[in-house]
Inverse folding.
């Protein structure tokens, strides 16, 4: 009985999805693209390297094409003219990001600039990145960090190569980037020094790698929403687990910085991005407050 009910429900979902897609196709004059299957759309045409799959499809359907990714219609621009039309001439129409699970669970309900919906908060965040957090002045202030970390990497490379075995240059570049970003954003090297009482260097490195993996993975529930509660790939479970670990770590980082501000009093000087964000959150001239969750999302 239960199997019969599930079969009927699945058939109904497939039918409704197909009808809605047909109606939307009639309503809009869409660019050409592959004929979609019910429910999955053109997911069967997308391999593990999505950009290569889209490039191969663009050779057949042209530089501006439409592709159904599950239940989501995606317009793909694959030429300079198409990119200019989407990102410059009609940027306000295409500026919003999709509301994916990664932005909801890991980036504090879309509180960072990348996943935030277009509006006052997003405009303010972009302005802060340009004028405060990644301004030319701030980058020059941290030039010594980049120089010191490059020298440290070269010393490590020399020591490793002097042993007469192959060197995994990619691993050294990863550590260089993590150390530079960690010092510029949070004030010290959490990977190399293990300067946190709530995480080990190995755990911190794992969290960063997992962050990259999850943000670059396709969650089937994002493109076929009615499958989202089933979490077929375990994606949401992994994202929630990483979110808990990251939040514990970021709360520790914020508490460290707030304690240093309290301790130094009037002599306090901002040394890294977290210090700047805490100051900006207290600025009465800000149109929208960043708040604590927003600061943690900015750090990520």
């Amino acid at each position: 009985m239960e199997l019969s009910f599930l079969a009927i429900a699945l058939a109904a979902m497939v039918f409704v999805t197909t009808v809605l897609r047909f109606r939307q196709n009639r309503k809009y004059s869409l660019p050409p693209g592959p004929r979609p299957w019910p429910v999955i759309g053109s997911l069967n045409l997308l391999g593990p390297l999505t950009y290569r799959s889209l490039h191969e499809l663009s050779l057949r359907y042209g530089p501006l094409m439409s592709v159904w990714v599950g239940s989501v219609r995606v317009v793909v621009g694959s030429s300079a003219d198409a990119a200019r039309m989407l990102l410059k001439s009609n940027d306000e129409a295409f500026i919003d990001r999709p509301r994916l699970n990664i932005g909801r669970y890991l980036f504090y309900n879309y509180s960072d600039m990348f996943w935030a919906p277009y509006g006052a908060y997003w405009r303010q965040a972009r302005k802060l990145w340009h004028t405060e957090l990644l301004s030319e002045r701030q980058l020059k202030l941290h030039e010594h960090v980049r120089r010191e970390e490059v020298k440290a990497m070269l010393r490590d490379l020399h020591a490793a190569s002097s042993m007469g075995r192959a060197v995994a240059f990619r691993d050294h570049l990863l550590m260089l980037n993590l150390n530079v970003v960690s010092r510029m954003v949070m004030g010290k090297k959490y990977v190399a020094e293990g300067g946190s009482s709530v995480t080990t260097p190995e755990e911190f490195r794992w969290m960063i790698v997992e962050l990259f993996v999850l943000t670059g993975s396709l969650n089937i529930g994002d493109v076929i929403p009615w499958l989202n509660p089933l979490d077929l790939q375990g994606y949401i479970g992994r994202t929630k687990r990483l979110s808990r670990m990251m939040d514990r770590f970021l709360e520790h980082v914020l508490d460290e910085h707030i304690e240093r501000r309290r301790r130094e009093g009037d002599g306090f000087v901002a040394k890294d991005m977290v210090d700047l964000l805490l100051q900006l959150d207290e600025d009465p001239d800000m149109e929208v407050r960043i708040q604590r969750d927003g600061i943690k999302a900015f750090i990520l």
